[in-house]
Amino acid sequence: MSVHEAIDRYKEAPPEEKLDTLRTELQSRARLIKGYGEQLKQQYYSQQTSNPTVIVDWIIETADEMNKLLDALHESGE
Fold first, then answer.
1. Minimal CA–CA distance to 5: which of 78, 69, 71, 75?
2. Which residues contact 11 (CB under 8 A, 6 or more apart)?
3. What is the pLDDT of residue 50?
4. What is the distance, to the nearest Å, from the Cα of residue 2 to the centroid of all Cα atoms in its chain?
5. Of 9, 32, 50, 57, whose CA is between 20 and 30 Å from 65?
6. Domain count, the chain
7. How far is CA 67 from the centre of its chain?
8. What is the pTM of this model?
9. What does the pLDDT read at residue 48?
10. Rounded distance, CA 50 to CA 29, Å?
């Protein structure tokens, strides 16, 4: 799900589900970052890293998405 779709789901969720909706999206992205970080570490140690910038760019992009989700939380006053 795109970050914009996730923010829309968060904004449209009933009040009692807002935090769970956001938590689910943040946890999903955190798991992806951890997985790609582990993959990058393994490639580094085995010296098979052909293009680490692809993974690093993806990690940065995903972290930016997480910040956008947190901004939506802040803007809503939750």
1. 69
2. 72, 76
3. 61
4. 10
5. 50
6. 1
7. 8
8. 0.61
9. 64
10. 24
Give residue 23's domain range: 3-76
**3-state class (DSSP) for residue 64:** helix
* Runs of H (alpha helix) within 1-78: 3-12, 15-45, 52-76
Length of the chain: 78
Residue found by looking up tokens 């085995």 in the block: 46
Give the separation between CA 17 and CA 22, rounded to whole angstroms. Answer: 9
pLDDT digits (tens, 9 = 90+) for 12-62: 888 888 888 888 888 888 888 888 888 887 877 777 656 677 778 888 888
- Backbone torsion region of residue 13, taken as left when φ is above 0, otherwise alpha when ψ lies between -120 and 50, otherwise beta: beta
Q: What is the structure's pLDDT at 49? A: 56
Cβ count within 10 A of residue 74:
8
Neighbours of 36 (CB within 10 A): 16
